[in-house]
Structure formats: C-alpha cells, structure tokens
Amino acid sequence: MRIKATVSYDGTQFSGYQSQPKMRTVQSEIDKALRKMHKDDSIHSVASGRTDAGVHAWGQVIHFDTPLNLTEDSWLMALNVLLPKDIRILSAHPVSEEFHARYSAKGKTYQYRWTRKPIQSPFERNYSVHLGKWNPDLKRMQEGAVHLLGTHDFTSFCSSQTATSNKVRTIRMLEIEEKNDDLILTIEGDGFLYNMVRTIAGVLYAVGIGWDEPCQVAEILEARDRKRAGKTAPSHGLYLMSVTYGE
Amino acid sequence: MRIKATVSYDGTQFSGYQSQPKMRTVQSEIDKALRKMHKDDSIHSVASGRTDAGVHAWGQVIHFDTPLNLTEDSWLMALNVLLPKDIRILSAHPVSEEFHARYSAKGKTYQYRWTRKPIQSPFERNYSVHLGKWNPDLKRMQEGAVHLLGTHDFTSFCSSQTATSNKVRTIRMLEIEEKNDDLILTIEGDGFLYNMVRTIAGVLYAVGIGWDEPCQVAEILEARDRKRAGKTAPSHGLYLMSVTYGE
C-alpha cells in the first residue's frame, strides 16, 4: 500500500533534505523512523523534491510503500514518536500506486521571509532574514516581480550547477506583502529549479533597496545568465509551504 | 558610568543564565562581549536574577559599569555584533550609581506557555510545552490560581534546594488565558523563589487535567512542603517577560 504524508520541519539543524553519508538530513531521519517501525531496512521515502540546508518546510510531501494497514492516527503517533522533534508528520493517508510525490506534483508554493525589526528577536534568528539598515521598498519589489510571472526560461535564476536541461518554468503567482514587521514573498509555480526561489528573492531584494531598477528584472531574465542575478538570498528565510497534486 | 540594559535570549542552547566553568551560559556570553568591547577583563554584568537551562527571556535586565560614554545606538550596535544571535540587547541607557539590576527590582513578570495543537509545530518545539492528549480545563486552572494571589509563604512552591530562608512572596497578578491554540499563564510578583513559576505551572496543570481539585491549591500552599506540589513544569515553556523598578 502506498502512503502519502505531509511533513513539516525546521531546517536549522539539517544538512538539507536529501540523505548524505554521515550528515543529519531530513530524509535520513524519516527513513530511519520508517525502518525502525517496519523492522525492514529496505523501506524508504520519496519526497516532492529536496530542500537545502537551513530551508524549512510547512508542507513537504512524501510517499512510501508499506505492508502495514494503519489508521492515520496510528501513522502519526508511530512516526512522530520515532522522529526527532524538528520533524513532524502532519498527515498520512493511502493513495493509489500511481501517486508519486515527485512526478505527480502539479505545483509548489514557497515563502521567503525578511524582518524589518530594528533588532531581530533571538527567537526568530533562524526563521527570517534580518534586514538591518536596509529597507527594501515594497512597491519596487512588486514592480520587479511582475516580470517573472508566466512561462520563462529561468536560466538566470538557478544555480549554475543545475543539471536539468529544460529551464522553462511557469510562475503562476508571486506576491510580496508586509505583515507587521515582516516582508513576505509568496511564490507559486509548476516547479522550481535549484536555488530558483532564493535567487528570485535576492534579485527582488536588490531592486527593493535600489541597487537595480524594477525593469532590470526583465533584462536579467532575458540574459539567461546566472551571473546577472547577483547574490542568492540566505537559506533560513525560505519555507516550502505546500505541494499540489491533480487531486 | 552605570548602564542598565534589557536583554532577550532564546534559552534553548544555554546551560542557564549564570556563568559556570566550561558551560555556555547567557552571563558568560554577555561578559565575554563586554570584555572584548572594553579590552578589560575585569568588567562584568549583574542580572536581575538567574534563569535555568532552557528558560527564555524577553526582558531580562542587567547593569554594568563602564568608562565609555556611548549613545544607546552605539551600545546596541557594538554589543549585538559581538554577541551570538540567541542573545540580543534591546535597550541600553545610563542610570544612577544606586541602580542595581537585582536589588533595585520591584517586581517581575513571567509567562508560561503550553500548546493544545494536536501535533506540535517543529518551529515551536523549544518555545511551548505540547499538551498532547491532555486538555487542561482553563476554568479549573483559574479557580486554582486564585488561591495563590497575595502574600504567602511559598515553601511548597520552590525547589527544596532553595537557599533563601524567607519564603514569603507576593503575587500581584496571575492570569491564564487561551490564545488560538495556546494556553498562556502570566504571573507578576515582587519576586520569585527558585523554580517557583514552574512549580506553580505544574500544580495548575495538575488541577486543569483533574489530578487535583482547585481548592487543593490552598492546601498545598498551607502545607509548606515541596513534596505536596508534584512535578515542576518543563523549562522551555517559561519566559522572563520583564523586570520592573521604582522608576
């Protein structure tokens, strides 16, 4: 039986999502819990995609195959007891054998968070990026963001190490709003290239503080050259919010 | 010149407030920053009181003596650059030589936080106590709390290791409220004995879930016996919110 589960994690103390030898990763902790529960070393989970070290998730999605027939409550209880407290399984239910956490995904939503607080709260140090003396202008950022909406080749906005050859992606929504002292970017698209959201956050930040003009976002996009996009924004401001499927 | 400063810290990664050999403590980090800044190994800070390992602070107060005459902005800038990100100095200004962070304190406010969320968010794991299946009744807790208001001998509500001989303290305010999924206890008094707020939280929790009756709080108080009060609530739900002075 195939189970689809939603996972939330605080990325602070992980070397990213994907299993790596000798590193503490989200995947290795989840697979460890599944193996302990099943007393079976071959069981493993598949996620919608990886996240980098320091990146958080509210709603990562995984699937795994199991011979066990349990209620959702039992799955949550068993896995959350075995998992460290910086990973929580939020939901778990059976899906068809055709469901695949990665290949069936129709879209993803990410958020990027900055804070304008004059002094960052010690409680938020790993959960939003402190702007300090820089005060990005919301309207400029929004003007710049417009150029990214729709279907484009995002070569300029992904890591030069990206292996994927097809760099065309569709951004269906890109909003930037102020909430109390926070500046929150929400982006939804069919899929994202490696480092793409953090590069977009970095470019719109540069526009916000006046280093670039809003219209230059279009030029950066057209250049198809990663060097044009400047600095990638820090990982700890980024959250994978949800993954959508054709359900 | 004497400086009074307000300090916020995330207690998660500290072995409490007070300096201890080979341990990471809030005081040792603050004193290290002060010494680096002054290039003087004799400078040290005095706090309103210590907090235990895992206990947080929004508004701890300290004082220190300095030959430097700086603006508040310069103090904040210099100290916050030198301090680790889980400690932030929120304010700093000159006070009279008679001001003493501990002896001049007229009152303190603490909060204790539980969460009723069915599954605790990984982002809150160090910042509130997860109630899980236990659902304390707010009204029962409030009924129990009434007995603690006013001036009493709090022998039953402090660690048996408390060195202080005078265990009479005055609680001026004790409120318990629900906010979204959180249960928040706010307590204000002239001073608190070692482990006193966490013992009160533990007793009111036991009343809330029906292990004790609200009226038994008065009996526990009158017994002047720590054994009567049951389990101390976990440290990571506790916050030192503010310290008041006769200003």
TrEMBL record, chains A, B:
Its EC number is 5.4.99.12. The keyword S-adenosyl-L-methionine does not apply. Substrate binds at residue 110. Keywords: Isomerase, tRNA processing. GO terms for molecular function: tRNA pseudouridine(38-40) synthase activity. It catalyses: uridine(38/39/40) in tRNA = pseudouridine(38/39/40) in tRNA. Pfam families: PseudoU_synth_1. InterPro entries: PsdUridine_synth_cat_dom_sf, PsdUridine_synth_TruA, PsdUridine_synth_TruA_a/b_dom, PsdUridine_synth_TruA_C, TruA/RsuA/RluB/E/F_N. Residues 5-104, 145-245 form the Pseudouridine synthase I TruA alpha/beta domain. The active site is at 52 (nucleophile). The keyword tRNA processing applies. Transmembrane segments: none annotated. Formation of pseudouridine at positions 38, 39 and 40 in the anticodon stem and loop of transfer RNAs. PANTHER family: PSEUDOURIDYLATE SYNTHASE, TRNA PSEUDOURIDINE SYNTHASE-LIKE 1. Homodimer. Belongs to the tRNA pseudouridine synthase TruA family. This is tRNA pseudouridine synthase A. It comes from Sporosarcina jeotgali.
